């Protein structure tokens, strides 16, 4: 008997189902069970399992919070701002499981707003970004960051995107520094 313990019988059938008919006929164990999706109880159990999984992932590697970001390169800047200077922005990141969502605002860049979506994988954060204010269809790209081994509150990496002025792909450094 694999896995031991709970067997797929009448007492379990109301909330769970076995992965295959062969497992059911062979009297499968708890390792073969998946929540039923055809009832309210099954839906609630499935959501509770997803919540528990996401909570465990967040506890293991949480990056939720406020960050100060620094980047250089081609970015929308306030009128009269020097083009070679570093752009410093404010970023708020929310997390559910290994998925992140963030909003980055350039206070000194006429409140240019960027939206980020990504995924946390161990010490790495990968994702995409796009400009939401002022709305733009060309100001978008991808980013890849890794946690700094010497300072756990810092993520360093790069962003890659399209430069609509020169019609080329461009990239530069990207640093997140935790504020909280």
Blueprint of the fold:
Blueprint: H1 10-13, E1 16-18, H2 21-25, E2 33-35, H3 40-60, E3 65-71, E4 87-96, E5 99-106, E6 112-121, E7 124-133, E8 140-147, E9 154-163, E10 168-178
Antiparallel strand pairs: 1-2, 3-4, 3-10, 4-5, 5-6, 6-7, 7-8, 8-9, 9-10
Provide the CATH topology of the largest domain: Porin
Structural class: alpha+beta
Tell me roughly what share of residues is in helical segments: 10-25%
Widest beta sheet: strand line-up: 3-4-5-6-7-8-9-10
Total of helices = 3
What is the CATH domain class of the largest domain? Answer: Mainly Beta
**Percent of residues in beta strands:** 35-45%
What average pLDDT do the residues reach? 78
Written description of the protein model:
The structure is a single chain. This protein is of the alpha+beta class and 180 residues long. It folds into two domains: 10-60, no CATH class; 65-178, Porin, CATH 2.40.160.90. 17% of the residues lie in helices and 44% in strands. It contains three helices and ten strands. It has helices at residues 10-13, 21-25, 40-60; strands spanning 16-18, 33-35, 65-71, 87-96, 99-106, 112-121, 124-133, 140-147, 154-163, 168-178. Strands 3-4-5-6-7-8-9-10 form an eight-stranded antiparallel β-barrel. Strand 8 (140-147) and strand 9 (154-163) form a beta hairpin. It is globular, with a radius of gyration of 23 Å. The termini are far apart. The model is unreliable at 1-8 (pLDDT under 50).
